[in-house]
Amino acid sequence: MKKQRLISTTLLLAMSALPALADDMAQYQDESRKIVKEFVSQLGGELQKEMKTNGPASAIKVCRNAAPAIASEASRKTGWNVSRKSLKTRNAALGMPDAWEQKVLADFEKRMEKENPANLEFAEVVAEPQGKFYRYMKAIPMQGVCLKCHGTDEAIPQNVKDALKTDYPHDKATGYTLDQIRGGFSIKRPL
Ligand code: HEC
Question: Which numbered atom of ligand 1 lies nearest the CA of 68?
Fold first, then answer.
């Protein structure tokens, strides 16, 4: 009995070391899309509600608290690492992309010339020193509602500017227009 269990564990280990199969890739992508969709609807809902009720200066706290909370909850539930990354961060501690993410985000900016930014995504199995990972990114296009906190100087109300200066003295995430992408969702799954 004991021996049998040992054999099946060894088999499982051997199987997980195989390169990802097309079926697995499709399944991971499906799951990643679901996580992103859920993230967008949760955060978007809370953000819009606070913006409408109390205005953008007050909604800053939704982005500061709810966004990281939703990301860690999704990571805890799935065992994957779920985050938002950007080439121009507001919160560098959470949003700074690693080398792979930088490359994908730069590529999204090129692909935007020919593709709908709302559909930009990229997935790949990557071998890293810590092991093999399924990695996935989906672009986050700018929308009207984002301009009040990430837009050009004229688009951001003075009280929002003041609050951002206090909370994020190293903010790089302003000056965006509607035809740009703000960053990307990033998912990293150990294989
Ligand atoms: C009420 C102000 C506000 C609005 C509106 C807003 N954001 Fe943000 N955004 C923030 C703040 C504050 C942070 C930093 C959050 C943190 O501390 O993790 C942030 C961070 C981000 C990040 C993480 C990367 C980084 O720069 O640190 C992304 C991506 C992002 N916002 C995209 C968007 C998009 C897309 C929209 C529109 C759908 C939007 N934001 C609307 C305030 C806002």
Answer: 18
